[in-house]
Amino acid sequence: MHKAVFLDRDGVINQKANEHDYIKTWNEFKLIPEIVDVMKHVQSKGYKIIIVTNQRGIARGIMTINDLNKIHENLRQLLHIHNIYITGIFYCSHDIHENCGCRKPKVGMFLKAKKLYNINFEQSFLIGDSLTDIMAANTLKIKSILYAKNAINKKIEPMPRYIVTDLNEINKIIN
Predict the structure, then answer these.
(1) Is 21 a catalytic residue?
(2) What letter would DSSP give residue 15?
(3) 8 catalytic per annotation
């Protein structure tokens, strides 16, 4: 079985859009520079890199699956320049009220990745910036890392395994 680092996309790999908006085109996609070093590090440690992302903008008609695929293809090409290879990208295009099995905090995207790539969840990590990411990881016993740009002084439920305020801290956690 393989170990993986699952990454949420918006807020971890790229800057989030403004509230109630979505990253709809490659021109709106702004890579968070520190994530490149994190991806290089985890890849060098033998982890597969898998992106799991809720993309509600598709269900809302704000963007198309073709728009999303173009963004992801450009992301793959950009990371390839840095010798970073994404094993898989999984997305949920459903709206919240559709009650699908893939929209985080549900675990459908993770289970699909496990089946396709023979992933051992207990040897894997998830890097996310929301509690829905942490909930999904905790459900599957994936070690969860909450990326919170600003220091958090309150109790978080569900509790992530780790909390970082700087993406570079992740390289000390994942060995």
Answers:
(1) no
(2) P
(3) yes
- Model pTM above 0.85: yes
Task: Give residue-wise pLDDT tens across range 91-130.
Answer: 999 999 999 999 999 999 999 999 999 999 999 999 999 9
Tens digits of residue pLDDT in 48-73: 999 999 999 999 999 999 999 999 99
Contact (Cβ atoms closer than 8 angstroms) between residue 113 and residue 94 = no
C-alpha 131/C-alpha 7 separation (Å) is: 13
Assign residue 18 the CATH number of its domain: 3.40.50.1000
Residue 173 lies in a domain: no
Pairing of strands 48-54, 4-7: parallel
What is the largest distance, in Å, between two alpha-carbon atoms of the chain? 41
Q: How many domains does the chain have?
A: 1
